[in-house]
Amino acid sequence: MTRHGLSFLKMHGAGNDFVLVDSRGGPAVTTASLARALGDRHRGVGFDQLAELRDAEGGALRLEFWNADGSRAGACGNATRCAAALVMGETGAEELDILTARGRLRAELRDRAIWVNMGEPITDWQAIPLARAADPMHLPLPGDPVAVGMGNPHCVFFVDDADAVPVAERGPQVERDPLFPEGTNVEFVSPLGPDRLRMRVWERGTGITLACGSGACAVAVAARGRGLTGRQVTIAADGGDLRVDWRDDGVWLTGPVTTVFEGRLDPAFLAALS
Length: 274
Hints:
Layout: E1 6-13, E2 16-22, H1 32-39, E3 49-55, E4 61-67, E5 72-73, H2 77-91, E6 95-100, E7 103-110, E8 113-117, E9 146-149, E10 153-158, H3 167-175, E11 185-193, E12 196-203, E13 207-209, H4 213-225, E14 232-237, E15 240-247, E16 250-254, E17 258-265, H5 267-271
Parallel strand pairs: 2-3, 4-6, 10-11, 12-14
Antiparallel strand pairs: 1-2, 1-17, 3-4, 4-5, 6-7, 7-8, 8-16, 9-10, 11-12, 12-13, 14-15, 15-16
């Protein structure tokens, strides 16, 4: 951030849209008030999450995530893919280590697609976390959902027709259920075949989104746990298809990445936040 304003990049992965702020070489700049102001689709830029790029030791990249309501996000699969595409495009590298609150993630370029290893799924009720002891594969909630942690909590409902679910109504109810002390992302999923699922998403701290990378990973783990699919699955989100490959070393995610535009925040806009 300078007297000339603050530069940013707008990107999306299958319609899951992000503002990327590059703070490499300098101090962190994102605050809760800045995230809220930028996340406003009428008075700011608008995003599902904000990702700030930071320096890390050994040539790795550090990412810090913010939701549109100004809260922190522990993981964001599609934003991680977008940031990896940006950095790997700059350097020409085909591999990249990325440090997040989730831990050290690995990004790889394979056949022109950016894959990110989102780590092992979390299936212990305390670590997800849940507020009390419960079987994550069969939560004591109407609809018999599955809980999976991917660095952030997810509650996955398998339904006959995901498109018929009133996500705007049910999503916030589940997000704020007392079973989830930190809130939760919510996915409504319909099986379309042995290796294909339909997913709609309510994201904690943001609302309805067109896709969710960590959500796609959680859905794949939940579907495998329920015996609905194998470990490789394509997930049809509102904004496009995401592919998940649950390997021995973690849950890998890929899908489209699009750069929309570069911009600069006006100094007067920034000054009004202080």
